[in-house]
Specification:
- The protein is α/β, with parallel strands linked by helices.
- It has two domains: 214 residues, D-Maltodextrin-Binding Protein, domain 2 (3-Layer(aba) Sandwich), CATH 3.40.190.10; 91 residues, 3-Layer(aba) Sandwich (D-Maltodextrin-Binding Protein, domain 2), CATH 3.40.190.
- It contains 15 helices and ten strands.
- The strands form two sheets. The protein has a five-stranded mixed sheet with strand order 2-1-3-10-4, with helices on both faces. It has a five-stranded mixed sheet with strand order 7-6-8-5-9, covered by helices on one side.
- The longest helix has 20 residues.
- The chain is globular and about 55 Å long.
Length: 314
């Protein structure tokens, strides 16, 4: 298996190094369907920030059966939104990817349960519903670090499994599914919750990634991409209603079942999660402290030596 992985990543390097771009076109792949989680990229596109930098952008969403990482691997996109934990474990497995911008600064993950969750030990010997797109490698590393021995129940998304009682413990995000629980009529006293930050798993999440060969071949283009994307997020923070207008148009074009109220709540929470606790600012950069916390939890000692901050963060 490891030999096959290495061959696969060598092919990825070749695709990234020698793949051609049409003019100055870059395809960005969000890690899910159209929603406020990716508002800054939509804004930068619609407001012409990318064009002002001299680059054309295509934003292509994934199918439910694939991940943004797999699209990046295939060479169909040049930049992808990924979770830091996923990106780090992929890099540890040999994937030549680098972080060029970090939007999330605070962890959004929450476990909701029908029974009290006092601490991490409450999860032992339990069945926990988790999203289908989470890699088994990541789940195994998480379980090993926290000495969990339960069973993962995979599902695509939403809160129906929890609402119907099919599962007792379910993973949700503070900017999406957690909001849905209240939209469905649940009260805070009708379930228990445990934030990942409560037991030290305060890892930043969404960031923008490219392959290392692409970064080395197109450093100026990457800088333009990052500058325009930051402008998009800053504009979204300052013009929330106008951002929602842009967002809802894209949502309708992609036939996504949601509404403006939910997307407003999501946008507010996503923007909150982007604020660095120490500086109270949006830095759009993965800090050395955030990187170290992630590697301490997810990587073994040998992997830590191979993945340096200066190599991973550009």
């Amino acid at each position: 298996m490891k030999r096959e992985q290495h061959i696969y990543y060598i092919l990825l390097i070749l695709i990234s190094a020698y793949g051609t771009l049409s003019g100055q076109t870059i395809t960005i792949t969000p890690k899910w369907t159209a929603q406020a989680q990716f508002a800054g990229y939509y804004v930068a596109d619609k407001m012409g920030f990318y064009k002002e930098e001299g680059i054309d952008i295509q934003i292509v969403h994934t199918a439910l059966s694939e991940s943004s990482f797999s699209v990046l691997q295939s060479g169909k996109s040049q930049a992808a939104v990924m979770n830091l934990s996923f990106a780090l474990t992929a890099r540890a497995a040999g994937a030549p990817i680098v972080n060029i911008m970090q939007t999330s600064q605070e962890n959004s993950l929450i476990l909701v349960s029908r029974h009290p969750l006092k601490d991490i030990s409450s999860l032992r010997h339990q069945e926990i519903a988790v999203w289908n797109h989470l890699s088994q490698d990541l789940l195994d590393r998480f379980a090993a670090h926290y000495e969990l021995d339960g069973k993962w129940i995979r599902f695509n998304g939403g809160v129906n499994l929890f609402l119907t009682g099919a599962v007792d413990i379910c993973l949700v995000g503070s900017y999406n599914e957690y909001i849905q629980l209240f939209e469905c009529g649940l009260k805070t006293d009708s379930f228990y919750s445990l934030h990942f930050t409560d037991f030290g798993y305060d890892l930043p999440e969404d960031g923008l990634y490219v392959t290392q060969p692409f970064y080395e071949s197109h450093p100026e283009m990457v800088q333009k991409l990052v500058r325009a994307s930051i402008r998009g997020w800053q504009w979204a923070n300052e013009h929330k209603e106008e951002t929602l207008d842009i967002l809802m148009q894209i949502i309708r074009e992609n036939n996504i079942g949601t509404n403006r109220y939910h997307q407003r709540k999501m946008l507010e929470e996503v923007l909150r999660l982007q604020t660095n606790k120490s500086s109270d600012k949006r830095t759009f950069r993965l800090s050395p402290e955030g990187f170290k916390k992630a590697t301490d939890i997810l990587l073994d000692e040998q992997e830590k030596k191979k993945i340096l901050y200066t190599d991973f963060v550009k």
